[in-house]
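Field reference: sequence -> structure
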Amino acid sequence: MTASSNAALAVRGLRKSFGGTPVLSGVDLEVEHGSITALLGPNGAGKTTLIRILSTLLAPDAGHATVAGADVVRHGAAVRNAISLTGQFSAVDDALTGRENLVMMARLRHVASPGAVADSLLERFDLGAAARRTAASYSGGMRRRLDIAMSLVGDPSVLFLDEPTTGLDPAARLEVWETVRRLAEDGTTVLLTTQYLEEAEQLAHRVAILHGGRILVEGSVAELKALLPAAREEYVLRTPTLEEVFLHLTSRDGALPDEPGRGMAA
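Structure field:
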């Protein structure tokens, strides 16, 4: 199986063991340019190990992988120039302002005009009004948006997001989802790992399920759903989910309907 001409990532037969215990046992995966691919799997399935190999932080035992056309083993510097990685834990410095965090990252990446780059990203991620506030004062969603903005300094063509919404409340998670969608619309290739199936269903153009060290299945959400028996038509009484109640009440117009008997004790 050869990589297609539109592949931003191509993985063939990738293997990795730790202390004699295999974690990846021949992974095959391909991700197209400008797409969002979700990598699903239980804890310990090897999702983070695969991301670390693709970002040149870990060497594979066997197999072959390319990112933006560059081999992750033989051309590590070229891969690192093409990618950015946002892990499960924020890289934001709480003592710095949002703008200072971005300027610092731009200087670390030797980008010309760090201030201009920072200002552009602040506007792009709707953080301009909070630019001169310390990151410690940001909400969870704002911090994650700033974290992703920092990852985009230098215009990487491929972005790895390792469980980007872990620990966020429902409203902040929706903020991050919209950010990721915009990135793909602008041409960035996104590979994200997540344990939230709804997140994959909402965001991903393609989904790959990693289990037992291999990709069990890969395809669109519709293709994966078609693997099970066809849906039956049933009539059910649907009540709002707790998440829907939370999002409604915390929105700007989140007043409860004025119904007889509804109210709160004084």
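Note: Confidence is low (pLDDT under 50) at residues 260-266.
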